[in-house]
Design brief:
28% helix, globular, alpha+beta
């Protein structure tokens, strides 16, 4: 199957996604890339999905599920992309992405980020996106650079992973260079 036949689409989480999110959130290998360092219960995830009002301006965050559509196959949920810490006054939002291990390095994260950038610019009318990436996570740094983010700072010894301090790269994307 060629890349042309494979596209990703974003959607809000549904109750059927709770077990998939539970698996990703509780995979300790993923903890080094985010800000979660504790197991999350399935019931807490189910409650989050059930009670989320889908208003990013009220909630200050939104999680999207990333679905892969391939010719002749049913859609498959392959990841999640989060918008967090929305600041409506300064018109900026943080972004984080997780792609299931077996779907990494195939261009799907770049597709999902590109869709999210367009949504943030055209629908939410934001002017800036940012992210924090552990400095030795070169694949994520390269991913964000590939969609236009640039490095804007380095937070020294910002995260402690396995009792060892790690630097964190701050990256930004300006959605409207006229500002």
């Amino acid at each position: 199957m060629s890349k042309i036949d494979e596209v990703v689409r974003l959607r809000s989480p549904e109750p059927k996604d709770a077990k998939t999110i539970y698996k990703w959130e509780n995979n300790t290998e993923n903890w080094q890339y985010g800000s979660s360092f504790a197991h999350v219960s399935l019931s807490k995830i189910e409650d989050f999905i059930r009670n989320f009002n889908n208003d990013i301006f009220a909630e200050k965050q939104h999680r999207f599920m990333i679905d892969l559509y391939a010719t002749g196959m049913p859609p498959k949920t392959i990841g999640t992309i989060d918008l967090y810490d929305l600041d409506a006054i300064n018109r900026r939002v943080g972004v984080g992405i997780l792609i299931d291990k077996k779907y990494r390095n195939k261009g799907f994260a770049k597709q999902a980020l590109s869709i999210t950038i367009k949504y943030c610019k055209d629908v939410l009318n934001l002017v800036q996106m940012y992210c924090y990436i552990i400095s030795d996570n070169e694949s994520s740094i390269n991913l964000f650079k590939s969609v236009g983010f640039s490095e804007s700072g380095l937070l020294k010894k910002w995260n402690i992973i396995n009792s060892k301090p790690h630097d964190t790269v701050v990256m930004q994307l300006f959605l409207n260079e006229k500002l």
